[in-house]
Amino acid sequence: MFHQLVNHNHDLRRLLEKGYAVGIDSGYLMIRDIPYLDDQRQLQWAAFVAKLEFVDKLTVKQDDHQIWFSGSIPHGLDGKPIPNLAGGPTTLPLGEASKDVVVQRRFSNKPKVTGAFRDFFEKIESYLTIIAGPAMELYNASPYSFRTAEKMSESVFKFHDTLTSRAEITDLSAKFANDIVAVIGNGGTGGYVLDFLVKTPVREIRAFDLDLFHVHNAFRSPGRLVEDELGKPKVDVYRGRYDNFRHGLKFERKCIESSSGAELDGVTFAFVCVDKGSARSRIFDLLISRRIPFIDVGMGLDRKRGPINGMVRATYYSSENAQRVRDKGFAEMFDQPDDIYRTNIQISELNALNACLAVIRFKQLRGFYFEEIPHYQMLLEIGDLKVVGESEL
């Protein structure tokens, strides 16, 4: 992948050919072996880090005038801090393959004439002149080591995750690296849970559903409808939609029953997205027996006032307290044949909202989102759009 990127981008190739220590990792360009002077005019070495903006899988562009630096404050030949470097102390989490680069500062210096850099070659050359120039003159130090760091942090995504690098949240995204997540039921809410998880860097996603994909499913399913999908198993439909996006996807056309232990081997978290109480009960038995933490979702809707009203629910069952939460009776364990949810199909926004509550709660548990109150039960009423939570067992 490293050589493919270099070969498809003229500015990266020019950096490599000139002798810069080029590396690419986690959506960032690394230029190691940059010499500079510290406050004692002693020679030090650091790295430049710049954010990559991917246009497609193999094409990048340069889109700002800022750069990160892994050294201390660079000084000039006069022993004073180099002027005109706006910015200051900062940190930046990087990938596993870049542990040797510890960002300490961010700099901002625009080209005087154009106000913007044409490409990465011009950007690196400009910052090199400003920051490394004094060290190159005083010590005859060279940044042209012709050393490349071809190792890149592994990713589950088939496209570069520039969302994470743009938002500078590499450290938070890494919290999902060891998760194997099961999505049991790929209907309305389960389809949206699956969609959100596909874009989360969990190691593996296992999706389970027995049913076929019909027209009514399309009205509460993320993504475009391809007519050829109708009548196919849901798991095949979703496999076709997401297989080109990431690795680590497993789709199985089956129900999860009390005897389905092998299917859940290694699973670290599960989402239960079924609308039949009897099926939910069997799934709960299995997950609790295997001490797999999970979130169960559900809706309770009615037309007592004419327009549809009711609640959407997300309930968290930890490995320690799952049975105690189950005993509170939040989730139905028996089938309700007159449930309006089974006849009114155009409620995709409620499915998505239900999935959002569940996935946000999961990400809180992993430390990706801030958690002020550790709720195990969340209810959102349609009428007033208020979320009510319970945290005390």
Can you describe what's shown?
The protein has 393 residues and is an alpha+beta fold. The protein has 11 helices and 16 strands. It has helices at 2-8, 10-18, 120-139, 162-167, 170-173, 188-198, 215-218, 234-242, 277-289, 322-326, 348-365; strands at residues 21-25, 28-37, 43-51, 53-54, 60-61, 66-69, 86-89, 105-108, 180-184, 204-208, 249-252, 269-272, 294-302, 309-317, 377-381, 387-390. The chain has 2 domains: 2-154, no CATH class; 178-390, NAD(P)-binding Rossmann-like Domain (Rossmann fold, 3-Layer(aba) Sandwich), CATH 3.40.50. The longest helix has 20 residues, at 120-139. 27% of the residues lie in helices and 22% in strands. The strands form 3 sheets. Strands 11-10-9-12-13-14-15-16 form an 8-stranded mixed β-sheet, sandwiched between helices.
What is the subunit arrangement here?
single chain
Strand order of the largest sheet: 11-10-9-12-13-14-15-16
Based on the coordinates given, report the CATH architecture of the largest domain: 3-Layer(aba) Sandwich
CATH topology (fold) name of the largest domain: Rossmann fold
Proportion of strand residues: 15-25%
* Number of helical elements: 11
Helical fraction equals 25-40%
Short key terms for the protein model shown above:
393 residues; alpha+beta; Rossmann fold; 2 domains; six-stranded antiparallel beta sheet; 11 helices; 16 strands; 22% strand
Give the gist of this structure:
The protein is an alpha+beta fold. 27% of the residues lie in helices and 22% in strands.
